TrEMBL record:
CDD domains: NTP-PPase_RS21-C6_like. Its EC number is 3.6.1.12. GO terms for molecular function: dCTP diphosphatase activity; magnesium ion binding. This is dCTP pyrophosphatase 1. The keyword Magnesium applies. Homotetramer. It comes from Kingdonia uniflora.
Amino acid sequence: MAETPVAENITLEDLRKKMEDFAKERDWEKYHSPRNLLLALIGEVGELSEIFQWKGEVPKGLSDWKEEEKVHLGEELSDVLLYLVRLSDICGVDLGKAALRKIGLNAIKYPKFDGSPL
Ligand SMILES: Nc1ccn([C@H]2C[C@H](O)[C@@H](COP(=O)(O)OP(=O)(O)OP(=O)(O)O)O2)c(=O)n1
């Protein structure tokens, strides 16, 4: 298995490879079909939503949250990201490239604020 990358420099490619290795090492590739991964992703989005459920609006930075709540949030965000990365890989989509292209399309669709009043 590839060496664990330094956390600050992690790339989508590092995560893609780690998920590929994780599935291979467990003989789980047969379960990682596009549909299964999509359902797993949606399930994790549900778990992420539960963290915010019934809380009302929360401050940016989550300044009043306990450390363990933030750790839990990080875990659920990671599950969503990891399944998204794996789903993209299994579908043959280069997620980094696709996301950069989409940001470009968004910028064309929604022009920058030019400072002039409405
Ligand atoms: N068939 C699987 C099962 C798990 N995972 C990986 C991707 C996710 O990052 C994490 C999901 O694990 P769990 O299904 O155990 O989900 P949770 O970690 O959210 O646990 P729980 O649902 O008990 O809170 O493990 C995977 O790649 N393929």
